[in-house]
Amino acid sequence: MPEFKIQHITKYTYEGLVRDSANQIILFPIKDAYQDVIKQDMQVTGNPVIDTHIDYYGNEVGSFTYSEQHCLMLINSKLEVITRQRPLPVNDIFPEQQWEDLKRLQYTMPYIDFLKQEYFEGLSELQVIVEQERSKNDTPYQIALRFCNYVYQNFEYIKGVTTVETTLDEVWKLKAGVCQDFAHILMVMLRLLKIPARYVSGYICTHSSAMRGEGATHAWAEVYIPDYGWLGIDPTNNCIANETHVRLAVGRNFSDCSPVKGVYKGSSGHKLEVSVTVEDENSCNSYDDNKFIHDTAPLQPVTELPKNSYQRYMEIIQQQQQQQ
């Protein structure tokens, strides 16, 4: 059972004094048979009270408000978690039976939410590819692995070419992006075949130089397999998400799982830095509160708004804690 120490620091530096910063955080790992949280320490500038609740998708969500004037906001999550390897699906059920089982889920909660298809102009093109990539005798599990490989092989992993505002059409035309874009395209392909698929945010806990997504929050997809349950598929690395993937939240898409978002009163200009470090049980390093990553995706151009007014687009701007 791997044990990981994870530190996730979000740092906002504002151009001037701001106040009434109201934030939502989804930084509390999922707790289930395959993931145990040993302890978690959450430190926020001003030490505001963090109220938590469980949302519709079962995620633990925190909210807090820091009313005093400030020019710096730090959210520092220190986490120790144990993961367990999940057994893989067994393809001993006739494919026809599995597809029939999926048909019965189309009008069943909560699977309805994970079958809703977002329209975009490239959908018809992707539909053709989906039909080309599938085989008549494939099980849903085999389809998921094949689609994962398609995304991995046909989309280029490039940091900074997309943001949280980038649409599916833009990703489809670029044929490039980061982990959240890869996950969204994979989910579209699965949903076109009426296979429930959901978005997952979390961390990838490996020091392999061949794995993409370290140093920031990571994202992948989960596909529902009949008589098995939810299976994590990571198209960014063309692998099954298992004991090296720590899950924070699940939802229909990125917006349901955004690690940090909020609004504040004050100057619109700010700088965001994010650092995620992971140590396993064999590491001797300690948490480093001064370590930040400076090569995150560029911030969007700042829109000048009157001082001390609520920023109309602050939720989008603050979501620049883009998953890599």
From TrEMBL:
Pfam families listed in its UniProt record: Bact_transglu_N, Transglut_core
Domain of life assignment: Bacteria
Domain Transglutaminase-like residue range list: 171-237
Protein name: Transglutaminase-like putative cysteine protease
